[in-house]
Amino acid sequence: MRDLTAVKAALWNHRIELPSWAFGNSGTRFKVFGQPGVPRSPFEKICDAAQVHQYTGVAPAMAVHIPWDRVADYGALAAFAADNGIAIGAVNANVFQDDDYKLGSVCHPTAAVRAKAVAHLLECVDIMDATGSADLKLWFADGTNYPGQDDIAARQDRLTSALHSVYNRLGPGHRMLLEYKLFEPSFYTTDVPDWGTALLHCQALGPRAQVVVDTGHHAPGVNIEFIVALLLRAGRLGGFDFNSRFYADDDLMVGSADPFQLFRIMHEVVTAGALDPAAGVAFMLDQSHNIEPKIPAQIRSVMNVQEATAKALLVDTDALRAAQLAGDVLGANAVLMDAYHTDVRPLLAELREEMGLDPDPVAAYLASGYGEKIIAERAGGSPASWGA
Ligand code: RM4
Ligand code: MN
Known about the structure:
Largest sheet: 8 strands, parallel
Order of helices and strands: HEHEHEHEEHEEHEHEHEHHHHHH
Strand order of the largest sheet: 1-2-3-4-6-8-9-10
Helix content: 40-55%
Bound molecules: beta-L-rhamnopyranose, manganese (II) ion
Oligomer: single chain
Radius of gyration: 21 Å
Shape: globular
Mean pLDDT: 97
């Protein structure tokens, strides 16, 4: 068993970044179910993110998505966030919703569309300058639906060229985080479908280009922790987009579908020494579904990451190493499973009390009256949404 003081210190320092879009309405491709009280502006999203941080103590940053979070004055947005104890996290570019992007963005066959997409990515770097954000997060919906629709290699050339233009514009302290996704919305080829493709592009760009692992972006059965271990080994794991999935990119609450997988991923992170904020791995959430209340769902996701992390920190590494080196298959597996089966909730409750927080963040939030307050206050205006 690891030193509990050290385990708690690691958990205290572990930072989890929230997605702004999780606080607005979202949905499936069939329907966005609106909820009362959702934010009507990026400022209100910051207020909601601050609630998640207030009750968990470990979520002091919120990623933004442009244009969903477009404002006239990004400096004012960052200042408002800072006043609420929140930093602006990754700036997520959005080159997948304009009509022009029907056949792709940076990989589009038409130069004018590619230029428009690159201009947007550069605008996102300007927003990083204005907000103090360090990470540009890129996910491309680009791809094709039919064999022969476009030239696969030519699309990679176009992607390379666009990524270079943006990489060269990064400021000091900026990173480019490239996210891959197996399929959807494209069904034949996707231009950045997997970690290998993302890594090749990042390696060609330079050390400040790193890969993002979204846990919902793989085929069923893929061993995600293996990918994590390899990217860490290569020094190219920029961060995670955590969410849960049963089928495809379900975006369900983190750790809800497969908490064991989350534990296995965090075990690789801990083993590589990458939990330490100095390692530069961004632990971001990308959970946004449409049937659960937004703020408690984010609190639950944060708590589930903490539980998986606590279990990973409890792995008896000496015993594990000894069993591995002795070829003791059952013993090694038992060491890991012992940690996984530990009920870490009392430990986390104790940690929260030491941090001056309520030991039960969801209950504390629900008792606070904030949910009722925003329903009353946010009656008019247009609710934020990625869909409707
Ligand atoms: C994508 C991808 C991105 C996220 C958008 C909303 O599937 O996961 O990270 O920004 O969805
Ligand atoms: Mn994602």
